[in-house]
Amino acid sequence: MSLSNLDQLIPTKYGWHVSFDKEFDSKWKPFSRPRFKQLLEYIPLFARYLPLWYRLRKAKRRAHMDFINPIPLQQIYGAPIGGLGCGTIGRGFKGEFCRYQLVPGLYEFQTVEANTFTVCIRRRNITNYCQVLTTNRLRQKGLHMWNTAFPKDYGYYQALYPQSWTTYDLPGQNIRLLCKQISPFIPHNYKDSSLPVASFVWNVENLNDDPIEVSLMFTWQAGSATNEFLCEDISHEPVHISDDDHNLSAASGVSIKQKLRDMQLEYCILGKKELDNLVTTRTNFNLDSDVEGRSVWMDLIDDGRLIEMESPAARPATLNTASCVCITTSVEGKSIKPIEFALAWHMPEIKFGLRQQLYSKWYTTCFDKSTLNGTKLCLYTLDNRLKWEEAINKWQKPILDDSLLPDWYKSALFNESYFVADSGSVWLDVSEDTTLSEHVRKWGRFGYLEGHEYRMVNTYDVHFYASFALIQLWPELELSIQYEYASTIPHENVESRVYLFHGQTGRRKMLNSVPHDQGDPDEEPWLSVNAYIAHDTAEWKDLGSKYVLQVYRDYVYTQNSEFLNHIWPTIQSVMTHLREQDADKDGLVDNGGFADQTYDAWTAAGASAYCGGLQIAALRSCIEMAQIMNDKDLVNEYDEWLQLAKNSYSEKLWNGQYYNYDSSASSHHDSIMSDQLAGFWYLRLTGHKYEDFEKERVNSVLDTIFKINVMKFCNGTMGAVNGMTKSGQLETVSLQSEEIWTGVTYGLSSTMIMENLNYEAFLTSEGIYNTCYNIAGLAFQTPEALTSNSCFRSVTGLAFQTPEALTSNSCFRSCGYMRPLSIWAIQKAIELSRKEANSNVNSV
């Protein structure tokens, strides 16, 4: 092949790189069974869970945590498309459209075969090559004749979210294609970042001497990815837009309208018109008809153009009908020419599972709602795509150009950010709801799932880690979440239910408690909080402290006094509830002998390193906030409480090297927990130093964790395992103690950076990214946790679905998880540590 210039159009070397012929280890499976010695405690839980699961299945609803049918591994994902809170569509790194999240909070993990691009090459009015640009062999009847299964040896993919670049070397043609995909994911932009759109710019490079004619066809099917949700009232319509005074771009395309689960949904595809190209369409054809599918294919092969067979309005439309948009242009020899498509999926109003309330999506507030449609969104995309590229480059460039940062980190930071949008996120217009705070009414109601299969909105104990992304990228949305949680604290829900782990009956929401989550999107989130039913989280010992710490951090980062004034009364209520959880009145909350914190399968009793450390940090935060509020009595009260708590924490848990897991007499009380400095972590990232955690002890703890939990576990290649024994063995008392949690490892690494342990920090966190993206293939589906028995390293294909957990015996848990967004704490630590270093230099 002649010398190519196409790769120069990719503006960065960073990102996830993978060839179409990449082979991942097929043995990786969802976690299904704990060790035998751990199994007994789960038998009663499963016995209570099974009837609930069957009831929901009979009602044609999904369990919010499905332990019977976990999501199977698909080692196919690339960067998804779509903004925040508008619904997302996954892309495979080999060209598929997969993992649809159009019904709020509910994922469909199937690939829609018909949703694809096709290229046709003509020379001297003769078609020489016509190929569907995915490696899959299409099985639908109407697609049997299409030339499918693009050879894997000729494709390459690179993703640096929210952009990706897919390169095709067309076999035997001396022609290369580069597809640049982008959705507007732009920090601090609260309009464009909410849009359900994607741009696909194809650059065609003709390496021959003679000119060629190229046609690119974009095909899209009605409905969604499965038949789970009722889809009706389907229609296909052609769209033609001229470049008059009201439109910067001229375009033609198609609109597919339908009602999906009783919600209006419109797909729109537009091809951008240029002076030297032609846009043609086939508005409606039946994918179940071999005749109609053949007609489209032969039409394209005949002259590289499409023609309408009859009036689109006269043709019946069903779930198995599709539309095509084709752009045809000539490319001179030794030259490159662009072809541009825009895709929109416009669902302006939504209802959650119980259909109690109708909401407008946030992005509709940015346009004239009465005229907004898919066509306008596609035109807006064509008109603003270059601005989006510039804004994304402006955001990413300082980090990508930072020579002191490792290359893998630059890729990890942006690629892990996919979960802010592709998290079942919803962003709602609630401006007319006078019961809500002014902030929420102004900036909208935002929610995202704990995970793709842990379907709870804004799960607070996990958001504690993940929120470092929102507070830095879209701080108004982070504050909206806090305002919403604050509004729930002084209320209770007396609905009685049985909690699955121990079978006790309790209320759904207790007065002055911080909810675990804001509900299940298949029920009615925000109106009915606490979907989680494994434990009664009113008795959890971490939620109150985490609420206080997040509020304080958010105030420090935003300096929003109105926010603190509004939240302050709830801080006092939460601290009163926290004091009630101190059974022995030693100043520290007492874990209750069950898994009463975010490690909800790892039992703690009495004082614990994790919850006690969080409480100490929360008390320091309360003192700071009370001083800002000029409440001297509370300053004194919280300071007295803090001194008592610190003394008890030291006496009961410090063993001279690290803090014991808990103060019980259990055999695992002296386990080394990698997350024991979570409270200190938050204080350091809000500008504090060693007022409450002595520097010598912090150094000792970090040294111990690095040597034992990192380096003695898989030789430091997989991150920090949650628990190790004092003797340096894997702690197997709980399934979670032997896991690596990706988000916890990122948080630990940011703590190390604040203590000038950069080498240790990046080595620790590199293990996570390398395992998920390059070894395990969990990219864009990062799990929260990984575990190891034999510590072998295999290629698992988990890209863009970072799970909660991985194991070395080829298991993962909870694909597509919230906690790994804590990687943004690393970036914050980098910035703060440099500022501290500069301040120290200047002071000298």
From TrEMBL:
<dbReference type="GO" id="GO:0016020">
    <property type="term" value="C:membrane"/>
</dbReference>
<dbReference type="InterPro" id="IPR012341">
    <property type="entry name" value="6hp_glycosidase-like_sf"/>
</dbReference>
<feature type="domain" description="Glycosyl-hydrolase family 116 catalytic region">
    <location>
        <begin position="796"/>
        <end position="826"/>
    </location>
</feature>
<keyword id="KW-0472">Membrane</keyword>
<keyword id="KW-0326">Glycosidase</keyword>
<dbReference type="InterPro" id="IPR052566">
    <property type="entry name" value="Non-lysos_glucosylceramidase"/>
</dbReference>
<dbReference type="GO" id="GO:0008422">
    <property type="term" value="F:beta-glucosidase activity"/>
</dbReference>
<dbReference type="InterPro" id="IPR008928">
    <property type="entry name" value="6-hairpin_glycosidase_sf"/>
</dbReference>
<dbReference type="GO" id="GO:0006680">
    <property type="term" value="P:glucosylceramide catabolic process"/>
</dbReference>
<keyword id="KW-0378">Hydrolase</keyword>
<dbReference type="InterPro" id="IPR024462">
    <property type="entry name" value="GH116_N"/>
</dbReference>
<dbReference type="GO" id="GO:0005975">
    <property type="term" value="P:carbohydrate metabolic process"/>
</dbReference>
<feature type="domain" description="Glycosyl-hydrolase family 116 catalytic region">
    <location>
        <begin position="444"/>
        <end position="795"/>
    </location>
</feature>
<dbReference type="InterPro" id="IPR006775">
    <property type="entry name" value="GH116_catalytic"/>
</dbReference>
<dbReference type="GO" id="GO:0004348">
    <property type="term" value="F:glucosylceramidase activity"/>
</dbReference>
<dbReference type="InterPro" id="IPR014551">
    <property type="entry name" value="B_Glucosidase_GBA2-typ"/>
</dbReference>
<dbReference type="Pfam" id="PF04685">
    <property type="entry name" value="DUF608"/>
</dbReference>
<comment type="function">
    <text>Non-lysosomal glucosylceramidase that catalyzes the hydrolysis of glucosylceramide (GlcCer) to free glucose and ceramide.</text>
</comment>
<feature type="domain" description="Glycosyl-hydrolase family 116 N-terminal">
    <location>
        <begin position="78"/>
        <end position="388"/>
    </location>
</feature>
<protein>
    <recommendedName>
        <fullName>Non-lysosomal glucosylceramidase</fullName>
        <ecNumber>3.2.1.45</ecNumber>
    </recommendedName>
</protein>
<dbReference type="Pfam" id="PF12215">
    <property type="entry name" value="Glyco_hydr_116N"/>
</dbReference>
<comment type="similarity">
    <text>Belongs to the non-lysosomal glucosylceramidase family.</text>
</comment>
<keyword id="KW-0443">Lipid metabolism</keyword>
